[in-house]
Automatic annotation (TrEMBL), chain A:
Highest rank taxon of the organism: Eukaryota
InterPro entries with a match to the protein in the record: Rab-GAP-TBC_dom (IPR000195), Rab-GAP_TBC_sf (IPR035969), Rab_GAP_TBC_domain (IPR050302)
PANTHER family according to UniProt: RAB GTPASE-ACTIVATING PROTEIN 1-LIKE, TBC1 DOMAIN FAMILY MEMBER 2B
Protein name: Rab-GAP TBC domain-containing protein
Ranges of residues in domain Rab-GAP TBC: 166-374
UniProtKB/TrEMBL annotation, chain B:
Protein name, entry field: Vacuolar protein sorting-associated protein 21
Biological source species: Pichia angusta (Yeast)
The keyword Nucleotide-binding belongs to this UniProt entry's keyword annotation: yes
Pfam families recorded: Ras (PF00071)
Entries under CDD domains matching the protein: Rab5_related
Basic and acidic residues biased stretches: 177-186
Entry-linked SMART domains: RAB, RAN, RAS, RHO
Entries under InterPro entries matching the protein: P-loop_NTPase, Small_GTP-bd, Small_GTPase
Database matches in Gene3D superfamilies: P-loop containing nucleotide triphosphate hydrolases
Length: 515, 211
């Protein structure tokens, strides 16, 4: 029989239950007050934020121990607020923060709109939670009242449907970790993380400097990521100290990636739902299994994924594709090498997995699907966003400027800004997995596309290398590529082409034309 | 009716020098103490009236980390103007700026207008007196000027935080753009139109900038 252990109810919660009771009894959502109350119990010894000071090894270990305890506190605090009973969800209405500590409103979402949506969504959440509890019970998995399961039912159509409708927030971290096979990773790497923490404690290099630049720029609109200043003394947010350690350890563990901007957002959001060590391994899993190559030093993985997205758009949303495609030859694949201008807007969809692109609750729903269904979910969600925007895009299409074939500014703005207003996660997910032509898109299809794009792009890069040998300029290179792509589409493989013979004479003709 | 032209402008420079903050100041007259790093690129527009000319800036704000440089050629293709930004307190960012200028001259369109911008000027002056505090800056005005003269660039020191010189940069670029290279637009009705895709409570974005 499976008995469930919970991670989110460590002793620390008990220790602070007094403060919690106080903050719950006044009915308001007051994570911030609770935070302040907890902090008051700690003596202030640090005048400077820890990262400004070079610590000796003993000092470092002490400060590490100290901040790990504070981290557990932060986590139990976030956990506690996520764990609030359904009627407590109303407390969010009275606050300017959501249940994770993010500001509810921003440039794109008005607080009234958030509250209106939340009123409905919070009821949906408690209905789903009950269904999940039944599902768990049916599978012999008991979950303690305020606990979180560390095991989930075996994969099935039913479970997939449940995941698509959203994992309860209080179980989210555990579910992600379980579906992503995090426990295997953890088992194979006992003690590795602690060792990394030790090794990177006083590490200073290019990566750690880049990490420092981004630390305070990670979720500044979330209260847990803000430093605390009282009586003129500023203490660094414990969550940021943790984020620093996770990112530093990662940069050491994966030198081919090091630190890449956007990892701060992924690791930061993971830390809201997982403890430090599991968040670290999850970050490893995300970069090696779900988004391979995306954060590597040359960012070629970004181009490859964008290429796959473009292939998907051409296949499933031909009207959108007609607007985006800038290639003059309608049926060649040159867009795989020279990505359409629009791909600037979608870079962050892959790199930050929609963090900052979609509202936070919507992002979390996408992450639920991603960790259960593999990377195809990212493509399906991207396609859904375009599908939802299609009518507006077509409206704007007449604005496409004729002189250079570049999409109009309005179109870019829409593609960049409209997703930030997609609060209604249910509508997005239903469109994605129930009503769309790409709801059945398989991971295998995505992998095949990826292979194709990788091969096409490496052939192209090979040509560029030779180009520098022959001394062509940019203009000539482009001409050559277009020619090569046209030839390729006529089933004349580039491999069988003789560079010195046929292609050279073709180049001469092109050069004459240019002149 | 004034003549409207649109100008594609790209911002380049090391991470955290304040590219996004300069744009935020120019477009929304706002400043954020901790601004999130830009992933890939962000796109914004702002209209400006300079004399009888109305210019619509189409601004591409790019990511600063070194590895994103691989995507940069996509951003500056067809750009008519560029802001190469460094942080006056960070010498490494000035070296990076030098590289960007070189790359633009080699790769971007021939008549691109480039402005060299030393940002975070507020960090080197006393807020009370406005006088420079000794030892605060790492890149001298002379160094900046010398690079600008050498390479034929506009040069400004700015502060996105205090708004010092920010509009001036864009105005100067607007003045420098030759009429024939900017794309003429025959949609006079769009001037001053409310942009439905602009952020909801952003007052500056949809209107005209008072350059
Ligand atoms: N004191 C001061 N701080 C500034 C100024 N401009 C920007 N900053 C701060 O510097 C940090 C980085 O600013 P950003 O505008 O995000 O820098 P960026 O160049 O866009 O950075 P990336 O997107 O990572 O390339 C933020 O925390 C800003 O608040 C300035 O003029 N003065
Ligand atoms: Mg930026």
């Amino acid at each position: 029989m499976d008995t469930e252990v919970s991670f989110s109810t460590p002793n620390l919660v008990e220790e602070h239950s007094d403060a919690l009771a106080r903050h719950n009894s006044d009915g308001g959502y007051s994570l911030i007050d609770y935070y302040a109350e907890n902090r008051r119990e700690e003596p202030f010894t640090l005048v400077n934020p820890p990262h400004r000071k070079t610590l000796t090894r003993t000092e470092s270990i002490q400060s590490l121990k100290k901040s790990r305890t504070s981290l557990e506190r932060v986590q139990s605090k976030i956990g506690e607020s996520i764990h609030q009973e359904p009627n407590r969800l109303n407390a969010i209405l009275a606050s300017d923060r959501d249940r994770y500590g993010f500001r509810k409103s921003n440039h794109y979402v008005k607080i009234e709109d958030y509250d209106e949506w939340w009123t409905r969504y919070s009821q949906y959440l408690s209905r789903r939670k009950k269904k999940w509890e039944k599902l768990m019970a049916k599978n012999g998995l008991l979950v303690a009242k305020k606990g979180s399961p560390t095991r989930f039912p075996a994969r099935s159509e039913e479970l997939r449907r449940y995941v698509r409708k959203g994992i309860p927030a209080e179980w989210r971290g555990d579910a992600w970790f379980y579906f992503a096979k995090g426990y295997d990773k953890l088992k194979d790497n006992k003690g590795v993380y602690d060792k990394l923490v030790d090794e990177t404690m006083n590490l200073i290099n290019e990566n750690t400097e880049a990490i420092e630049k981004d630390l305070h720029r990670t979720f500044p609109e979330n209260v847990h990521f803000n430093d605390i200043t009282r009586n003129g003394v500023t203490e660094e947010s414990p969550l940021l100290q943790t984020l620093r350690r996770v990112l530093k350890c990662f940069s050491k563990y994966r030198p081919s990636i090091g630190y890449c901007q956007s990892l701060n957002f992924i690791a930061g959001l993971l830390l809201v739902f997982l403890d430090e060590e599991r968040a670290f391994w999850m970050l490893v899993i995300v970069t090696e299994r779900y988004l391979p190559g995306i954060h590597e030093f040359n960012l070629e993985g970004v181009n490859v994924h964008q290429g796959v997205l473009m292939l998907c758009l051409r296949q499933y949303l031909p009207n959108v594709w007609a607007l985006i495609n800038e290639s003059s030859h309608s049926n060649n694949n040159s867009f795989l090498y020279e990505l359409p201008t629009l791909s600037f807007c979608t870079t962050s969809w892959f790199m930050s997995i929609f963090v900052g692109v979609l509202p936070i609750e919507t992002t979390l729903r996408v992450w639920d699907c991603l960790f259960y269904e593999e990377s195809k979910a990212i493509f399906q969600v991207s396609l859904t966003i375009f599908k939802l925007l299609e009518p507006q895009m077509l409206d704007l299409s007449h604005k496409r400027s004729e002189d250079d074939g570049i999409l109009s500014a309005e179109l870019f703005q829409m593609i960049q800004n409209a997703p930030k207003r997609l609060l209604d996660a249910n509508a997005l997910m239903e469109e994605c997995f129930r009503f769309s032509s790409f709801s059945k898109l398989s991971q295998e299809e995505i992998l095949n596309c990826k292979k194709y794009v990788i091969e096409s792009r490496s052939r192209y890069n090979e040509l560029i290398k030779r180009r520098s040998a022959v001394g062509m300029d940019e203009q000539e290179r482009k001409e050559l590529m277009r020619t090569a792509v046209l030839l390729e589409n006529k089933q004349i493989g580039l491999k069988s082409m003789n560079w010195n013979g046929r292609l050279n004479s073709r180049m001469r003709r092109i050069q004459q034309r240019i002149r | 009716m004034s003549k409207q032209t649109s100008v594609k402008l790209v911002l380049l420079g090391e991470a955290a020098v304040g590219k996004s903050s300069l744009v935020l100041r120019f477009v929304s007259n706002d400043f954020q103490e901790n601004k999130e790093p830009t992933i890939g690129a962000a796109f914004l527009t702002q209209r400006c009236t300079i004399g009888t000319k109305t210019i619509k800036f189409e601004i591409w704000d790019t990511a600063g980390q070194e590895r994103f440089a691989n995507l940069a050629p996509l951003y500056y293709r067809n750009a008519q103007a560029a802001l190469v930004v460094y942080d006056v307190t960070k010498p490494a960012s000035f070296i990076k700026a030098r590289h960007w200028v070189k790359e633009l001259h080699e790769q971007a369109s021939k008549n691109i207008v480039i402005a060299l911008v030393g940002n975070k000027y507020d960090l080197v002056v006393d807020p009370e007196t406005g006088e420079e505090i000794e030892g605060r800056r790492s890149v001298s005005v002379e160094e900046g000027k010398a690079l600008a003269d050498e390479e034929g660039l506009l040069f400004f020191e700015t502060s996105a935080k205090s708004a010092f010189n920010v509009n001036e940069v864009f105005t100067a670029i607007g003045k420098q753009i030759p009429e024939e290279t900017s794309k003429p637009q025959d949609e006079p009705s769009s001037v001053g139109r409310i942009d439905l895709n602009a952020p909801v409570d952003e007052s500056g974005g949809a209107g005209n900038c008072a350059c």
